[in-house]
Amino acid sequence: MVHDVAIIGAGIIGTSLARELTRYKLKVVILEKLPDVAMGATKANSAIVHGGYAEGHETLKGRLCFEGRRRFRELEDELKFGFSETGSLLVSLDDDLEPLERLLESGIRNGLDDLSIIGSEEIRKLEPNITQEVKNALLCKGAGICSPYGMAIAMAENAVENGAEIVLSAEVTGIESENEILNLVTDKGDFQASFVINCAGVNSDKVARMAGADGFEILPRSGEYLLFAKGTGKLLDHVVFQLPTAMGKGVLVTPTIHGNLLIGPDASEIDDREDTSTHAERLENVYNQAKKLYPDIDGETFLRSFTGIRARSSTGDFLIGPSNIKGFINAAGIQSPGLTASPAIARMLVGILEKEGLKLEPENSFNPFRKVVEYSPKDLPYREVDRLSKLPAGSRERIVCRCEQVTEGEIADSMERGIAVTTVDGIKRRTRAAMGWCQGAFCRARIAETMERLTGELPDGSYDIERSGVSRVGKHDFLDFLKARKEE
Ligand SMILES: Cc1cc2nc3c(=O)[nH]c(=O)nc-3n(C[C@H](O)[C@H](O)[C@H](O)COP(=O)(O)OP(=O)(O)OC[C@H]3O[C@@H](n4cnc5c(N)ncnc54)[C@H](O)[C@@H]3O)c2cc1C
Asked: Which fold has domain 382-457?
């Protein structure tokens, strides 16, 4: 079969595009090299729905950010992935208003109407725990936070419900063009399509080269984070940024959509695009910068560290558009604010496809709503959690993960939403099992056993972060490192 559109990569860009395309009578397939969707930059970022003032209007990043942000409320209503308009504050610790005024003007040029500069008194009313040293801030009322992997999973599930096909563990290793049809060679066989969209994130230059559509490079840049225990997000109500630097937006402090505190990222140019290890020195720098803004951040509540890899393009901007190879279209170099811009990028790509000759006939049966995902109450008293966790295996009420109070029924449901879930981390991203205080020490084996009972197959452990061989600084090592530093 020749597909109308084949999408390479199931991050937020590939999945959003697939869903957008299912509004039309089209045969759409996503080919993803890893065993789940959202396993690239989409799962490891700051999860901020940016205001849209930080990038200039002359860039695609600047023009598409606010356009994307404006669609989040509607998308959340349809797909229920987790989004909250917390507002953001870009704070300055000195009296010079000029950098904030410049960003305010940039925002106005990008169409924003919810920006204002406020002084220390107002900032402290909004953020009582922020440092006394804060002087001024740029407030963006409509910025917010979301679950980025939750959003990509929701996009993918809804796209599949509307007829798109997703092939996981299908790395594209070759692209040939013949008679205006592109042939994609993958681990799961060949796929033909009239149009191919390159949404391969940090590998998008390699994929473009396969097609003969090169001309840009990805210069990967990593960012490390510290995530704190559930409940610690109460320290603040807004996303709080510092003034951006040449390397990026700087270390931010934010609550996550699930109530954790998140700080980071730093920025470092790297050679190995797959290297998501973390380092005590870099985390220390993130920690110290964040503590300058919020002195009450408590290292004892540290939960885990992680790294995201930015797919920075050699042009410094998003690269979205047709290439010299007919039918091959790039959506490459999608670094921050790519998550925020993703709804706008998806629409832009549909427009490009139409211009390039794809016929768009509306599909009247398109259903924008994802199957309702219902979760049980998460604040049960300990005795009840203990009782439910001892129920016999096979009972839907049995609690599998005690920290996040996730039941066997929720795990089963998450596996029945159109995308095969074959890893424990896949369950984690869908239900939050193993995301709590014990980080899976109690439930990892119970999740695997539940999955085996439901599918007849033991999940593939090699893609779970704990077993992947990636070295990540843990809580005790980090606290020991900080202590040793103090004693130096
Ligand atoms: C540290 C950091 C912080 C960020 N913070 C924010 C933020 O707060 N707000 C915001 O708006 N944006 C943020 N971003 C940007 C945002 O995360 C990205 O723009 C977005 O996730 C990019 O999505 P993507 O689909 O292009 O790439 P990815 O999510 O990386 O997806 C690409 C996919 O392609 C697959 N793939 C690669 N090669 C092949 C192949 N040969 N065959 C098949 N599949 C392949 C990969 O496995 C992967 O799943 C941040 C990014 C980073 C790294």
From this structure: Arc Repressor Mutant, subunit A (1.10.10)
- Ligand 1 pocket, Cβ-based, cut-off 6 angstroms: 8-14, 31-34, 39-42, 45-48, 50, 171-172, 199-203, 207, 223, 265, 308-310, 334-340
Nearest ligand 1 atom to alpha carbon 12: 25
Residue 96: which residues within 8 A CB-CB, separation 6 or more?
A: none
Sequence spans of domains, the chain: 1-84+145-220+314-372, 85-144+221-310, 382-457
- Of the candidates 299, 281, 280, the one whose C-alpha atom is nearest the C-alpha of residue 290 is 299
Longest dimension (CA), the chain: 69
How do residues 282-336 score in pLDDT, each as one tens digit?
Answer: 999 999 999 999 999 999 999 999 999 999 999 999 999 999 999 999 999 999 9
Active-site residue, selected from the candidate residues 3, 50, 238, 279: 50
Is 238 annotated as catalytic? no
| Ligand 1 mean position, distance from CA 130 (Å) | 31
Residues of the chain with pLDDT under 70: 245-249, 374-377, 463-468
- What angle separates helix 338-355 from helix 148-161, to the nearest 10 degrees? 30
- What is the DSSP secondary-structure string of 125-181? HH-TTS-TT--EEEEETT-EEE-HHHHHHHHHHHHHHTT-EEE-S--EEEEEEETTE
State whether residue 322 is helix, strand or coil. strand
What class, spelled out in words, does domain 1-84+145-220+314-372 have in CATH? alpha beta
For the record, the structure tokens of 75 come out as: 């998308």
Total residue count of the chain as it appears in this document: 488
* HSE of 70, CA atoms in CB hemisphere, 13 A: 14
Terminal-residue alpha carbon distance, the chain: 66
pLDDT in tens, 183-201: 999 999 999 999 999 999 9
